[in-house]
Amino acid sequence: MTDKFLCGAGQVDLIFDQMFGCANDVYLLVDSASDRVLCANPSATQVLGLEVAQIKARQFQSFFPEDTQSSVASMLVTAIRRGSSGRRVVECLNTESHQRLKVGMTAVRVKEGKQYCLLLCLSNEDAALQERDSLALEKERFQLMCQAVSSGIIATDTRGQIQYINPVAERLLAVSADQVSERAIDDVMQLSAESGGEKIDSPFMACLSQRKEVNCGTVILLNQEGKEYAIQQTASPMLDSQGLLRGAVLLFSDVTEWSATANKIAYQATHDSLTGLVNREEFEQRLEVAITGARERSHEHALCYIDLDRFKLVNDTVGHLAGDELLRQLTALLSGQVRGRDTLARIGGDEFALLLEHCPPDRAARLAQGIIETVRDFRFTWENYSFEVGCSIGLVTIGTLAKDTETLIHHADIACYQAKDKGRNRLQIYTSDESAGKVRLTENQKVSDLNRALRDNRFELYCQPIMSLPEKNNRVELYEILLRLSPRNDGKLLPPGSFIPAAERYGVMTKIDRWVIDKAFHYFSEVMAHKRPVSSLSINLSGTVVNDKTLPSFIHQHLNKYQVPASKICFEIDETAVVRNMAFVLPFLTELKQLGCRVALDGFGTGFSSFGTLRKLPIDYIKIDGRLVQSITHSAVDRSVVEAIHSVACTLGVKTIAEYVSSEPIIKVLLEIGIHYGQGYRLGLPHPLTAESEPA
User: Fold this and answer.
1) For 601, phi and psi rounded to 5 degrees?
2) What is the pTM of this model?
């Protein structure tokens, strides 16, 4: 305060109002000689309970109780002598309410010549106490809220040092609040992108430096006890009312269980459930990346198409369980032959593909030949049987002129077929010269063989029962029609997997579908001629047949020709065909329903993308993929998927059929879930479809 404050009597009120008119505290200017109040700011009216004019008409000490006036007078004397006094808490009187109020008083001497005045500041201690109590209450509420939430909360100052940690964060970090108080958060939280991976920093420093919220994906937290958690975290800056940075708050949640489930579902979507190898969809994506690298960066890669020899013999002799075990053992064998950077995939029943990255042609050929020799020397034993298996491999190089994935796989398949045609257990490298000559001849031979089989009537129909669950009086809901091919040489029947892929590839499958429909309907006429009850049949349609707009008319004509009740016929179509051809499938299935036939969606559960299409399809049954069914006794995730499929089906009024029912434990789980029907070796083996041999 300058000595010229009282520069003129007429200016005192104006200057005082400019300086203290808006202050929240009470400011008074007092004449030290007369103890009279010369000026008072508006805040004084609230504390003292008088108008400004009334305050200025009274002596200063009259605002204080008698028992405190001596203390106030002592402060004033000290201020006059020293120029100012320290802050002291005293009581003053509110004239209007007759209440005593605690105030903190500070006095400063103001001089004009020989005249002394005192500038006094009175701050309301009661209001300050209420504010402190309110802040304490808010702090308590905040801490209670932080303790109640299920997420970890850590608050730091602007340097990233911990100021607060809630109980959830203490538990996840395996620390106490006292142990980490004032410690840097990066010293307490050990984070990595993956289990055992390189350490990464928390998002705190980025949040503090950028003054904005920072969201992080799932990371791994290693706590003080060495336990790992998958967490998701968000760091937010703390700004005061003036926009000044005061620190940051980290909110993090334990998503370990959710992350494990999500990873398992993601893994199942990209891997074969039987062998654990990459599936066809994932393999094609990786192959596409390799093609791009070859084109843009001149990388050298190779693609091998591997087809097992004599695998069908194992299936037909000792059953599918043995075949599955053989595939698992061969997977382990093949995995040991490839490099860490390579991708081995199962792309069909007994077909594998191998992507050899950064591998020149000569090295790729040596690796492929090593695989052939390893498989050739392998012996598979099952019960009292011993089998020798082998493999044929078609190899395609991937260079700067590489085409798309479909073309490359097709060329590798052609080379593989050539290897088989030359005597099996061989490697064939694809060349464009062979594509123009021998390969075309080989393709034509395939088509010729299939057409000849149709003309010679060498296809045979088998059937397998689809039973009610639980098995009430062995009631059969349907018999699924199964197709077999009788070769010309040894007479052993070939399963559909050995000829249907070629039939679909070379456009013969439509003819085969019509042959099956005609023979199945003819079966009805024979059964009815024997005056026997007619069981319902379920007929598989290939994925290519949905594009045949004349097939519904063909079915209608043959229903009339053989006098077959349409309600006795169910047509099965594979889920993959539905997903890939939705624009054609929907009207096709609608026409079948209009004829009075039933429809089943086959192999459901192998692709989650088709889940949302169920409500659009006019179907009566959902056949749950056998790979899911086989693992429901030991895989909680697969059981959950089966339960979800059944729940959605029931909501839509659709019946569920479980495939590959091979054991009593599987049946028990299916009954617990509520699956309507089952099909598999435990419920009934395939047998020839004839009017005389049909089960009662």
Assistant:
1) -95, 115
2) 0.46
